[in-house]
Design a protein that fits this description.
Elements lengths: L2 H6 L18 E8 H5 L7 E7 L1 E2 L11 E2 L3 H22 L4 E8 L7 H14 L9 E5 L6 H9 L4 E7 L3 H6 L6 H14 L3 E8 L6 H12 L5 E6 L7 H5 L7 H14 L3 E2 L4 E3 L18 E4 L4 E3 L3 E4 L6 H12 L8 E7 L2 H13 L4 E2 H8 L3 H4 L4 H5 L3 E4 L2 E4 L1 H4 L2 H7 L3 H9 L4
Parallel strand pairs: 2-5, 2-12, 3-4, 5-6, 6-7, 7-8, 8-9
Antiparallel strand pairs: 1-15, 9-11, 10-11, 13-14, 14-15, 16-18, 17-18
Helix pairs in contact: 3-4, 3-11, 8-10
């Protein structure tokens, strides 16, 4: 029995792959690398600019993101000051650069007041030079923290996509994942977002929560469609170490695959197109526009604790934690850093030539598919020679070749959270196994 066959006999929910390698494979660099050396050979004509705001009003029971709940204003102000210093040092190292995409995430960026939001946009636009009004710009918000004035600032500064984590329109379901959310407040926030005129509204919903049924999940989907979202993301619930649900350790009643299929089929019946396992796009959604950006090929500049930066050979970030004390300590240390200290890269992952090929293959496969000719042109080799295990996808009906592109079938798409980890290198798997959660 192959490793894939063994995994197919177990849960399809192993891990969500939104980047490769995962941050749990990152380790300290000894000695630290200089920022200039890391970016020396990198193309800078189509970068992604990301700013992380590691603050929330509360931490949801499923959340393992890098964020601190209920920060005092002096903590927020100290963090923003360090963010400004980091952006200056990063600009010095980058020199001339063009950004094709920008995003502000967290945490909850709209926990910041209007002045704080303006500070973030000023450093992205003024310091780093991102043309925020002519590239796609996405900002994450929450029902508890949005108001008319903040939304007007986001729209005026170039934001064309707002993403809001609703999770469910049924209060008992969100209460089960420690999110005391009022549906009336969610609906008011959505009305406000729509009235502000953002071209793209994205709603996040979760399936697999305690007490959730197919009927209740479809109820939330129908409620979501009343606001005509251009995008909907359907996330399976994961119970991760150190989160509230992880500590609760309830017996798992796994209905996730049936809930996923019900949600997928419903959205397809409503005219949505499935882009990935999680993402569905409405027929009225606008084209992304702006410069072309391909995550498999182009770099990413991440600013702030919790943000990751990608170059061809090095991925790096601040250290990562979930526990509240450790998160607060990392934020405090970051806030004390000098501008000069941001010229050192001390934590991350060096990508060998093989890992660079693997990353390109993996991110392509889980998105539009691996273009066999493009891979050969980029790396001078055949992807099926470099990664012969890919042939197993076709054997098990999880992948197929169409017009020179290896794509996942519908059966493969619904097992994306199994296929991604299956294709990790042994070195990355070992680092992830050894990672000490804190």
């Amino acid at each position: 029995m192959t490793r894939l066959e063994q995994m197919l006999g177990e849960t399809p929910y192993v891990a969500y792959l939104y980047g490769y390698p995962h941050k749990t494979a990152y380790r300290p660099f000894t000695p630290a690398l200089s920022l200039e050396s890391v970016w020396a050979e990198e193309r800078r004509d189509a970068l992604f600019l990301y700013v992380h705001v590691p603050f929330c009003e509360m931490r949801c029971g499923f959340c393992n993101l890098f964020t601190a709940a209920g920060p005092k204003q002096d903590v927020v102000d100290g963090y923003l000051g360090a963010l400004v210093r980091e952006s200056r040092r990063v600009k010095q190292a980058l020199g001339r650069a063009t950004f094709a995409r920008a995003a502000i995430g967290g945490g909850t960026p709209t926990l910041l007041d209007v002045a704080g939001l303006e500070t973030v946009f000023d450093l992205m636009e003024g310091t780093l030079g991102a043309d925020m009004r002519n590239i796609p710009v996405s900002v994450e918000v929450s029902p508890e923290t949005v108001d008319a004035e903040k939304l007007r600032v986001l729209r005026a500064r170039g934001t064309d996509r707002v993403s809001i984590g609703v999770q469910s329109f049924i209060e008992a379901e969100v209460a089960a994942v420690k999110r005391p959310q009022q549906t009336a407040q969610v609906e008011a926030a959505l009305d406000l977002i729509r009235s502000t005129g953002f071209p793209t509204l994205n709603l996040d919903l979760i399936y697999g929560m305690e007490g959730q049924t197919e009927e209740s999940f479809l109820f939330s989907l129908r409620a979501a469609l009343r606001f005509r979202p251009e995008e909907i993301y359907l996330y399976p619930l994961y119970v991760r170490p150190l989160t509230f649900l992880g500590k609760k350790a309830r017996a798992w009643d796994d209905l996730r695959i049936s809930l996923y299929r019900a949600g997928r089929d419903f959205l397809l019946s409503q005219g949505y197109t499935q882009v990935s396992m999680r993402m569905f796009r409405a027929p009225h959604a606008p084209d992304a526009g702006g410069p072309v950006y391909r995550c498999q090929e182009d770099g990413m500049v991440g600013l702030g604790c919790g943000a990751r930066s990608y170059t061809g050979g090095v991925h790096y970030s601040s250290e990562y934690a979930v526990g509240s004390r450790e998160v607060r300590n990392i934020i405090a240390s970051y806030s004390e850093r000098t501008e000069a200290s941001f010229g050192e890269v001390g934590y991350g992952f060096r990508l060998t030539s093989e890992e660079q090929r693997r990353r390109y293959m993996l991110l392509s496969l889980l998105a539009d598919g691996v273009d066999l000719g493009a891979y050969r042109q980029r790396f001078g080799a055949d992807v099926l020679t470099d990664f012969p295990e890919l042939a197993e996808l076709e054997t098990h009906g999880l992948g197929r070749r169409e017009a020179g592109v290896l794509k996942l079938t519908p059966a493969g798409v619904e097992r994306s959270d199994l296929i991604g980890p299956w294709l990790h290198s042994e070195g990355v798997r070992e680092l992830t196994r050894e990672y000490a959660w804190r």
